[in-house]
Specification:
The protein is an alpha+beta fold. It has 4 helices and 9 strands. It has one domain (5-178): L,D-transpeptidase catalytic domain-like (Beta Barrel). Strands 1, 2, 3, 4, 5, 6, 7, 8 and 9 form a 9-stranded mixed β-sheet that branches. It is globular.
């Protein structure tokens, strides 16, 4: 049975290794930075829900905002899964304001983030957002990955690329997702 290790660190204690990840959804790029220096760029696929911010579970959009790496699963059906701390406070605020989540869920999300825990993954905002591989790499999957945004809201890389990316990631690494 494959277990997902989900451990969260408060940003103040996060050991980021000095790297930051930037995802540009429109350009379909993931950029690894050390300060202003670009160390590596990867081609990615993002959510098939199209442009815009993730608003709720099932919209198939990749969220926009600043997140942190909070866990890893090296036995994922997508090769490796790197969990992000989605939903963040911004996501919870807009979810509450737009009546997608209740005040109770908002408070649970904010409390978890404040305490350095992974936010609840079972609200109407959805969860299990991360960076992952594509699983078994068949010619058809590679063709789809190279030309289409196909995920349910995650950021996907080829398997060799997610393995290379892992060397830049630690718990707490900052991931900025932009349109």
């Amino acid at each position: 049975m494959a277990a997902l290790l989900v451990t969260a660190l408060p940003p103040a204690r996060a050991a980021t290794g000095g790297f930051e990840i930037e995802v540009n959804k429109t350009a379909r790029l993931l950029i690894v930075r050390a300060g202003a220096e670009v160390l590596k760029t990867f081609r990615v696929a993002v959510g098939r829900g199209g442009r815009g911010d993730k608003n709720m579970r099932g919209d198939n959009k990749t969220p926009i905002g600043t997140y942190r790496v909070v866990g890893y699963n090296d036995r994922s059906r997508f090769d490796t899964f790197v969990r992000l701390n989605y939903p963040n406070v911004k996501d919870a605020y807009y979810g509450l304001r737009n009546a997608v989540i209740s005040r109770y869920d908002f408070d649970r999300i904010v409390a978890a983030l404040r305490e350095g825990r992974t936010p609840p993954q079972n609200t109407a905002l959805g969860g299990a957002i991360g960076i992952h591989g594509i699983g078994e790499e068949t010619p058809e999957k590679i063709r789809i990955h190279d030309h289409l945004d196909w995920t349910e809201g995650c950021i996907a890389l080829r398997n060799a690329d997610i393995q290379e990316l892992k060397r830049f990631l630690t718990l707490g690494t900052r991931v900025v997702i932009r349109e």
